Input
Amino acid sequence: MNQQQGPQIRFITRPQASLLERIVFFALGLLVLVAAFFFIGIALVAGAIIAGVFLIRWWWRQRKLKRETGDTWVEGEYTVVESAIVDQRPRDKQ
Output
């Protein structure tokens, strides 16, 4: 009896990296990791400085606005004009 075989799977393996290649890739990976750490640290410090500047500016504006509006008095005379609503429609003659 002739059995029909399905497609065969062949695994192609790459040759093992030499010791020198492993050391170079490890050093490059470590260099990228250290650079990423410093980049994130610098970005966080810059963000904190920018946030601090905005908060100080906001506080300064609020302080200035409170100072300007807190000490002002408006003086003047006024008269009350009739506060009741009056019906001014003409009456029908019947």
Summary: Residues 81 and 87 are 16 Å apart (CA to CA). Residues 18-70 form one domain.
